[in-house]
Amino acid sequence: MTADGTLLAISDLHIGHQENREIVARMRPDSPQDWLLVAGDVAERFCDVEWALSVLAERFATVVWVPGNHELWTLPDDPVTLRGVARYDRLIELCRSLGVVTPEDPYPIWHGPGGPMLIAPLFLLYDYTFLPAGVTTKQEALTLAHETGVVCTDEFMLHADPYPCREAWCESRVSAAEQRLQACDPALPKVLVNHYPLVRTPTRILRYPIFAQWCGTERTADWHTRFGVAAVVYGHLHVPRTTWHDGVRFEEVSLGYPRERRVYGAALSRPRQILPDIGPRTEMWFGMGRL
């Protein structure tokens, strides 16, 4: 915490759970200059996403949001019945009405302590390339997932319309983001914000490794070294921790489900400080999620 503000981050708020909703209701900055990065999975229903982002946008100087998979679900009881790209576009409209920065907006620059730093919110999805050991195709991986009973709800609720599949949507998103990052000033260090990890290594800690196929794409494996990245912020795994890959700091910042916090008792209920960097430290673990 500094008088000049702090760059903070959190993800996987899942405010459909009342305990998590109460945490968001109590969440406040320590300084009027604090920024908050929200790395996806705010909620499933559109009205809940709207409530949470409205609360946070009123309190933090700047809120930057990227979608997780849960915001993109189309639930049978959600009055907002849009699917795929249309649902994403509606979420972008909501954010812009609240003054929340999205992956479709100009990348903002953090000028507070630890800056200047370009903040790049990304929406990349996944393409089933994080395959289990010994498996060579998506179909094999999905068959194995169904046999073991570990199947992501995305298979039923996250639609890719008008794309033919989620992999095609991912291909489009990754290509566009890559071109945009290539056009950025290479001398300006960056914080990349994405719901999914940009490298596969963090998924190897998952309780159910087969779930990794819904956790990212191999196409981003070198982005943290190619684009002058100081830190990567992500969520989705429900394994809050700080790790380093090729000397670059990766921060998994998920709040996670109440049952996970009760079991492990160590998940943080406050946003993680990203900048200014708190300095050298060994890998930090805050829990092991995905029960």
Keywords:
291 residues, alpha/beta, 11 strands, 15% strand, globular, disordered C terminus
3D architecture notes:
It contains 8 helices and 11 strands. Helices cover 28% and strands 15% of the residues. The strands form 2 sheets. It has a 7-stranded mixed sheet. Strands 3-2-1-10 form a 4-stranded mixed sheet, with helices on one face. Mean pLDDT is 93; it is low at 287-291. The longest helix is centred in the middle third of the chain and has 17 residues, at 166-182. The two termini are 33 Å apart. The protein has helices spanning 18-26, 46-59, 84-98, 138-148, 154-157, 166-182, 223-226, 258-264, and strands spanning 7-10, 35-38, 62-65, 109-110, 117-121, 190-193, 229-234, 241-245, 248-252, 272-275, 284-285. It is an alpha/beta fold and 291 residues long. Helix 2 runs parallel beside helix 3 (84-98).
Largest sheet: 7 strands, mixed
Low-confidence stretches: 287-291
Query: Helix share of residues?
Result: 25-40%
Structural class computed from helices and strand pairing: alpha/beta
DSSP strand content: 15-25%
The radius of gyration over CA amounts to 18 Å
Strand order of the largest sheet: 4-5-6-7-9-8-11
Rounded average pLDDT: 93
The rough form would be described as: globular
What is the N-to-C succession of helices and strands? EHEHEHEEHHHEHEEEHEE
What's the N-to-C terminus distance?
33 Å
Number of beta-strand segments: 11
- Distinct helical segment count: 8
